[in-house]
Amino acid sequence: MKPKNIRTKAQQSGERRIGDAPKLGRVARIPDDRVAKKVRRRRSSSGLFSEQGTQPWMDRQRQRREEVRRFAFRVWFSLISLLFVGAFTVAMILWLRSQSNRADFAGTLAMDDVASGALAREVEIFTPPSEREAVRILRSALEARDVDIIHQYVHETSEVDVEEMLGFFAAIPEREGEALPFEWTGTTESDRLQIQGLNVYFEKDFLRSARMAMLLPDEDGEWKLDFPSFARWSDPPLDLFDSGDGYPGGRVRVILAQDQYFNGPFADDREWACYAVYSPDIDTTAFVYSRIGSPENRQVRALLEREGGMVRANVEIRRTDGALRNQFELTRVIAGDWLAVEWRDQSADE
Question: In whole angstroms, how far apart are CA 292 and each of 26, 116, 205, 286, 287?
Answer without folding.
Answer: 108, 19, 45, 19, 15
